[in-house]
Amino acid sequence: MNDIQSPTNIRDQIQFNSTHYGDRTWLISPETSHSVSFREVEETVLKIGQTLLDSGIKPGSSIAIASPNSTASCLMFMAIVSAGFVAVPLNLVAGTSILAYTIDHAEVQLIFVAEECRELINSAIKDKKNEINTVLLDPITGPDLNVIPKVDNKSSIEDKSPASNDVALLMYTSGTTGKPKGVMLTHANLLAAGRFISTGHEIDEKDKGPLRNCHGNHRFSEHFNHSQ
């Protein structure tokens, strides 16, 4: 797939940029100053994504992230969507009841949780009829993949990429005026948003910028937008 000219999903965009811009920096952590290259992104995403597929969770299922901004949470998002799952970032200031509703409504199958968010998430899922597994997500070293169960799986993350119209991200409103509303964004949506930001602000590989919660997912795509 190294001949990809115009990636139509996040997985292919990751591979395209790893091939053409592998040594360039994708992300720098302000807390640790640790940087991650495009090549390291692909290697990490493939490893985590394959582990998710090997867990037996059906592609298209929702997998949530409960973590403050970090290098690991960014890579976790990329791995989830690249493997064909739907990423659900949880609003950590929404409160237990709103979180419980969101997790239930999105039919979340697995939650990656930062240590500081464990108590909050455990409170949100304690009354769920169906058990929801949680996996510790360290902000620097990433998820503890060893605790994720494995089933007999013959599919490989490298065999098939998600379709452009597959849902990649499920975002929820805050729920201040009622129950949170879910917004579905496809791979095409995320790539288009990233390309629009890049071209509209004339951003290129020499520029650096912060990732904020409200624009983070679009900026994730923007960072992969070197194919133009």
Describe the structure.
The chain is of the alpha/beta class and about 230 residues long. The chain has a single domain (about 10-225), classed as Rossmann fold, CATH 3.40.50.980. Helix content is about 35%, strand content about 20%. β6 and β7 form a beta hairpin. α2 crosses α3 and α4 packs across α5. The two termini are about 15 Å apart. Mean pLDDT is about 85; it is low at about 215-220.
Second-tier CATH architecture: 3-Layer(aba) Sandwich
Query: Kindly state the mean pLDDT as a whole number?
Result: 87
Large-scale geometry? globular
Helicity, in percent?
25-40%
Q: Report the sheet-strand fraction.
A: 15-25%
Number of domains: 1
Alpha plus pi helix count: 7
Helix/strand order: HEEHEHEHEHEEEEHH
Count all strands and give the number.
9
Using the coordinates shown, work out and report the CATH topology: Rossmann fold
Alpha carbon gap, first and last residue: 17 Å
Which sequence of strands runs across the widest sheet? 4-3-5-6-7
CATH class identity: Alpha Beta
The value of Rg in angstroms is 17 Å
Largest sheet: 5 strands, mixed
Structural class determined from secondary elements: alpha/beta
Poorly predicted residue ranges: 213-219
Care to give the gist of this entry?
It is built from seven helices and nine strands. With 228 residues, the protein is of the alpha/beta class.
Can you tag this structure with a few keywords?
single chain; 228 residues; Rossmann fold; 5-stranded mixed beta sheet; two-stranded antiparallel sheet; 9 strands; globular
